[in-house]
Amino acid sequence: MSRPYLWRRCSTGSPGLGRMVRRCAMNGGEGPNSYARNSSYQKGVVDVAKPIIEEEISRKLNIKHLSSTFRIADFGCSTGHNSCAAMQIITEAIMRRFEIEGLISQIPDFYVFFNDKVTNDFNTLFDSLPRERLYSAAGVPGSFHGRLLPGAALDFAYSSCSLNWLSEVPKAVLDNTSPAWNRGKIHYAGARREVREEYASQYAKDIESFLDCRAEELVPGGLMALLVPAVPASWDPNSAYTTTTEIYLFGSCFMDMAKTGRFSEAKVDSFNIPVYLPIPQEFKAIIERNDKYTIERMEVLDNPAGKHYLAGPKARAAYWRAASEGMLIDHFGSEIIEELFDRYTKKLAASPLFSDPNCDKSIIMFVLLQRKPESCSSGS
């Protein structure tokens, strides 16, 4: 198997991407606060999605017109542990498809492109690649909200637990002259309607850009499997929580610390978390506005097992720290991190609601899209 290599291409996303690109990489390495050690929820999502991915590859993948190479990309791969598991699922399912069709002699060479932020820990990712694998590997640093690969370069695209991250914080929520100024909060959870609308608008733009760019990179008829964090259309906040309400609780820790003088309230006002979780109907509507795909399958995964890996306040706080620590240090400095997550852990522990994973009503959508043969646009 050839050695993995790093393919760096500048993103053609919006001009505001640069700073947020630096902030949002997950914690690297293998240490106690790393993403590798605190992404069991995401692993549970992959485990639950495995039979669905296998079934859809068996049903939908057209292998009769494939070339001698089959190219796959994972957009938002992070440090690789869960990504490697997903790539194994996909490549093995494609292999079985050839075997069932009696085309063993025509099995293509597999190439996998691992994509994430330019600050992503690709060294840990490449170190985690299994020795016995079916594919050659390359790293593609850059924002997936912009173009990353040549036209018609991909046969299969994949992304898991990444499309909830925005390309940037909506500008209006940080503008003290705007009706959407999010004073005293770090997210749209618990904020005014105008704040949520700005987040929703930014999310729609980002997903539209993601879909358009992947349409340029996928071959006609190519497949894209997405595992998208979301929330139900309705749920009772008195007896359940979602990721959004967890971020609201986390945000309250910032104002508590501001009141003790650890930093100013203005420092909090100038920071918001670039995360948005749609309801399923909202996500479907964005796809349907795009004329480049057909929706082959879309469903909510049944209670992803990963929720039960987050058993207790410490595990939940560590999970969020692995995802957010970089951008927190970038804005507030490293000296506040231990106190911040100690406060957050204690708040989680004080709430029977948040300490019980059975009360978590956050959902994961499985979406399978197929690139239409027609309406292939040029450029991005």
Automatic annotation (TrEMBL):
Which is a GO BP term held by this UniProt record? methylation
Q: Which UniProt keywords apply?
A: Magnesium, Metal-binding, Methyltransferase, Transferase
Gene3D superfamilies, A to Z: Methyltransferase, alpha-helical capping domain, Vaccinia Virus protein VP39
> Source organism's superkingdom?
Eukaryota
Keyword flag Metal-binding:
yes
**SUPFAM superfamilies the record matches:** S-adenosyl-L-methionine-dependent methyltransferases
Single GO term (MF)? methyltransferase activity
Question: What InterPro entries does the record tag this protein with?
Answer: MeTrfase_7, MeTrfase_capping, SAM-dependent_MTases_sf
User: Would you identify the family this protein belongs to, as annotated?
Assistant: Belongs to the methyltransferase superfamily. Type-7 methyltransferase family.
Protein's recorded name: Loganic acid O-methyltransferase
Q: Which organism is it from?
A: Sesamum angolense
